[in-house]
């Protein structure tokens, strides 16, 4: 874990397969209570320009449990809202904080913060990626299947930031990943090619429009809202286009009998997932949400050198 000390996490692909496995092992031990880590007097800043429940609360709880402090930097009440340049804000926060988690729109904005701040900068969601979510997802899958290599995860819906990080993260740990989307809503082609290069001949990365074929024998079914933050104006128009990609009892029957269902939340019940499925026996969505805390606690400890 020494290799992670002081590092940024802008993309899940910033981590090696070995580092992901080490973080998952650490998170599992923290969750079980078999070890306890402390990062006293360390200060985490949360600079969020988008709404957040799980990311904000789980990062805060994780930092407090490590013995540190949290400053919630609401962008609307900082000088960022009045046009202060990113490079100035980054250099000032670098003098006050020990680690900074940013939720923003453009990946380039995140990268600029990382360029001008020496402290670790964490991607807490951009329009391109959501790496911390995927650490929790992989932890949840590992809890259910033990060995990740060779499993198949099928993602259904919009080829968004979560889909991007899932493709990269699954490829890194040797999982097959299939993304099923309507035409015109596929993942970014550059991310798809990056994931395929990472997977090599160890696993498969596939993008398709055929939802039923995509879920066949999959061990993990995953979905997200059909319209991400900032796309609310197109939400109603997307419903008929995405209906075939809803995770429901019919699609689950096509998957592995022991398949689990994941959703990064918040969920629109009756749209991308049915009430029956989200509350059903194959749902691991609440474990997945809890695991945001443990995965991020492990990440913070590793970046701050508390391991």
Secondary structure tally, helices: 12
Strand order, largest beta sheet: 7-6-5-8-9
Q: Please write the string of helix (H) and strand (E) elements.
A: HEHEHEHEHEHEHEHEHHEHH
Question: How many strands, which pairing sense, and closed or not: the largest β-sheet?
Answer: 5 strands, parallel
Count of spatially separate domains = 2
The name of the CATH architecture of the largest domain is 3-Layer(aba) Sandwich
State the fourth-level CATH superfamily of the largest domain: Aspartate/ornithine carbamoyltransferase
Distance between the termini: 7 Å
User: In percent terms, what proportion of residues is strand?
Assistant: 5-15%
DSSP E strands, number: 9
Ranges where pLDDT stays below 50 over 5 or more residues in a row are none
């Amino acid at each position: 874990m020494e290799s992670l000390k002081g590092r940024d996490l802008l993309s899940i692909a910033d981590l090696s397969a070995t580092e992901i496995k080490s973080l998952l092992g650490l998170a599992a031990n923290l969750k079980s209570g078999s070890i306890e880590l402390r990062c006293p007097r360390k200060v985490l800043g949360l600079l969020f320009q988008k709404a957040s429940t799980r990311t904000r609360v789980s990062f805060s709880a994780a930092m407090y449990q490590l013995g540190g402090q949290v400053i919630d930097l609401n962008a609307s009440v900082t000088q960022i809202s009045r046009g202060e340049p990113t490079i100035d804000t980054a250099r000032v926060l670098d003098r006050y904080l020990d680690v900074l988690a940013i939720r923003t729109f453009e990946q380039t904005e995140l990268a600029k913060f990382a360029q001008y701040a020496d402290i670790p900068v964490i991607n807490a969601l951009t329009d391109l990626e959501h790496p911390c979510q995927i650490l929790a997802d992989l932890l949840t899958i590992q809890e259910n299947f033990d060995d990740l290599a060779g499993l198949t995860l099928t993602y259904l819906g919009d080829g968004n930031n979560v889909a991007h990080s899932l493709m990269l993260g699954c490829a890194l740990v040797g999982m097959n990943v299939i993304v099923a989307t309507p035409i015109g809503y596929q993942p970014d082609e550059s991310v798809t090619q990056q994931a395929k290069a990472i997977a090599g001949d160890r696993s498969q990365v596939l993008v398709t429009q055929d939802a039923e074929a995509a879920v066949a024998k999959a061990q993990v079914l995953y979905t997200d809202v059909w319209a991400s933050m900032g796309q609310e104006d197109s939400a109603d128009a997307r419903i008929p286009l995405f209906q075939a990609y809803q995770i429901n009892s019919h699609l689950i029957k096509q998957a592995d009998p022991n398949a689990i269902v994941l959703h990064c939340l918040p969920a629109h019940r009756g749209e991308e997932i049915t009430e029956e499925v989200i509350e059903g026996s194959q749902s691991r969505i609440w474990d997945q949400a809890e695991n945001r805390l443990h995965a991020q606690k492990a990440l913070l400890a590793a970046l701050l050198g508390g391991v």
